[in-house]
Amino acid sequence: MTNPIDDAAAEPGAVPVDVTTIHPGPSGGGEWFGHPRQLARLFSTEMWERFGYYGMRALLTLYLAQHFLFSDTTTTGVYGGFTALVYLTPLIGGLLADRYLGSKRAVKFGAIVMAIGYLILSYQGDPAKPFAMIEGQRYEVAIEGKGDARQQFVVDAGQKLLIKGNDDKTVSLLDAGGKEVRKIADGQFKSDGERSPTTVFLLLTGLALVTIGNGFFKPNISTMVGSLYAPGDGRRDAGFTIFYMGINLGSLFSQFLCPLLALGMGSWEGIGWWAGFLLASAGMFLSWALIQFDGGALDSVGNRPADAPANKDLLIYVGALAMAPVVWLLFSNLMGYVRPEAGAGLVGYFMGLPIMGKMMFGTFLVAVPAILFWAWKNGSKQEFQMMLAAMVLITFNTVFWTLFEQAGSSLTLFAERNTNLSVFGLFEINAAQTQIFNALFIVLLAPVFSALWIRLSNRGLEPTIPMKFAVALMGVGAGFLFLVFGAQFADGQFQVGLWWLAGLYLIHSMAELLISPVGLSMITKLSIARIVGLMMGVWFLSISVAQYVAGVVAQFASVETVGGQVTNLKVSLDTYVGVFTTIGWVSVGIGALLMVLAIPLKKLMHGVK
Ligand code: GLN
Fold it and tell me: What is the pLDDT at residue 588?
């Protein structure tokens, strides 16, 4: 994104005293809560976009596990790969906006593509038909009952046998009198589902379009916010906090409503998956309409860079859509993928990754040094140092999101299986709706944190950005350790109270406020101005790598299911507790390391706060 204001930032040391009078730019023309009035439109556009994204996210894992009957490993692998690519494409979308389109066109195009993607996801087709492979032979599976009372049976020569997973991971088949008719060794019972190829085709097509659309949308709406403020304008951080409120307000409503339509609540069974995705799509169309028909509100923001080569818009749009089959193939490559065995060594691990994994790590490992090299050649020493600091923080950022993004996958499955979803014994929410806690806490806490920073900074006590990042890393780990602590109070059904999960989300949300809005704002400050869109892309690239690793972590937390339901809740609880304990402590440790690095990093940042 290039505009006169951001170009002025090319000399970071030389911030004019009263920059707003020198560069009235887009900040002119009225205010909204003390901010440039354009922030209002960006706020609502992003709010509805996130409404769509998080509405879809709330449903996706359970949709894969319960409607498509994928195993946990496939579900979390596909989910991780999809969300990884969703955050990878912003690198390209940011670059194309910087050079050719300008942010606004990119956002509009992305919005419409995502809306169509959600619409396609709402085609649910018929549910997959469950079956089981027992010692290599196929048996039909019948499911009876609803919710936690569901029971699964294998049908063998007309006889219905209840499937019971044992604590030692063997499986028993019981007759109507509860007598064990057959015992199957660990690993010899594999459940699966028969899926319609058309439905799977459309699922991956929808996901591919969301991925492409988000690449155009997400980095550029953020750089548009950054462009509203002249360098040195003290309102920038607060502006991003308000923007972040918009993000979470959107997700708050959709994480409640989309699962409500899809899965119902209490005794109401809802309308169907399709209705949840359709609502997400409607929100996304609204987001598009808000920016497409802005009534001139954004005339001065996010326009095509002055030095852009001749109009290549059509080529870019067609090219982007032509990538859909490629993305589709990447997702389909993830589907049959089996996690590499532990002990394969680092190289073995890398080689065993699906194409997507190789691409992900490869891009990060190439992009970060390449951009730094560019900065070293083309920037001043100070600019290079600031870029270096940004890159170090971006790298630590991956650890945070790896843990945080368990929300959509392993934590949602945990909520479904090992959480008592009753709210004060008054009513029950569904597992997908537990994702709401994060958004809720962010909306409540963002203003508190904002006020806190102002107070602390008035006394000269505001922590540095690296310090905030370090505490965030420790916090996201501590959140998991909190849930692990709560797991010892699980009831006889091996379910923990909802409040332990809510507590995890509270801690995670506080940590998020230390890293996420701070990070977006930091990128627009530390970056060399003419590549700020690209740098925003690198920020999202680090989240992308994290999403992928998050998928792998969630795969480690896989448990056996039949017809989308776990066969033994104790094994399931133990598995989650094991994985959550490990990642919790690792993150606390990495946070401590960053705390030590915070001092040299501060020097590299040349006064950017
Ligand atoms: N909740 C925030 C958003 O959707 C942050 C998520 C992220 O950047 N990983 O923008």
Answer: 98
Task: Spell out which residues line ligand 1, taking CB within 6 angstroms.
Answer: 50, 247, 401, 516, 543
Which residues make Cβ contacts (< 8 Å) with residue 485, sequence separation at least 6? Answer: 500
Q: What are phi and psi of 523, to 5 degrees?
A: -60, -45
Is the pLDDT score of 234 beyond 90?
no
**Which neighbouring-strand residues pair with 174?**
162, 180
Which tens digit of pLDDT belongs to each residue from 256-308?
Answer: 999 999 999 988 999 999 999 999 999 999 999 999 999 888 988 999 888 88
What's the rounded Cα separation, in Å, for the pair 198 and 193?
Answer: 15
Query: Taking all residues of the chain, what is their mean pLDDT, rounded to a whole number?
Result: 89
Atom 3 of ligand 1: nearest residue by CA position: 247
Please, what are the domains in the chain?
16-126+196-338 (1.20.1250.20), 129-194 (no CATH), 354-609 (1.20.1250.20)
Phi, psi at residue 383, to the nearest 5°?
-60, -40
- Residue 609's pLDDT band (cuts 50, 70, 90): confident
Q: DSSP class of residue 408?
A: G
Q: Are 138 and 131 in contact (CB under 8 A)?
A: yes
Q: Identify whether the C-beta of residue 514 lies closer than 8 Å to the C-beta of residue 369.
A: no
| Residue 221 CB partners (closer than 8 Å, separation 6+) | 42, 45, 46, 49, 103, 107
* Closest CA to ligand 1's atom 2: 247
Radius of gyration of the chain (CA): 25
| Spatial separation of the C-alpha atoms in residues 410 and 72, rounded to whole Å | 9
What is the predicted pLDDT for the residue at 321?
97
Distance 463 CA to ligand 1 centre (A): 22
Predicted TM-score (pTM) of the model is 0.89
Mutate to test the pocket of ligand 1, among 114, 218, 223, 516 (most ligand atoms within 8 A of CB): 516
Ligand 1, atom 5, residue with closest C-alpha: 516
CB atoms within 10 A of CB 69: 25
Q: Exposed, middle or buried by CB within 10 Å (0-12, 13-18, 19+), for 462?
A: middle
CA-to-CA distance for 50 and 56, rounded, in angstroms?
9
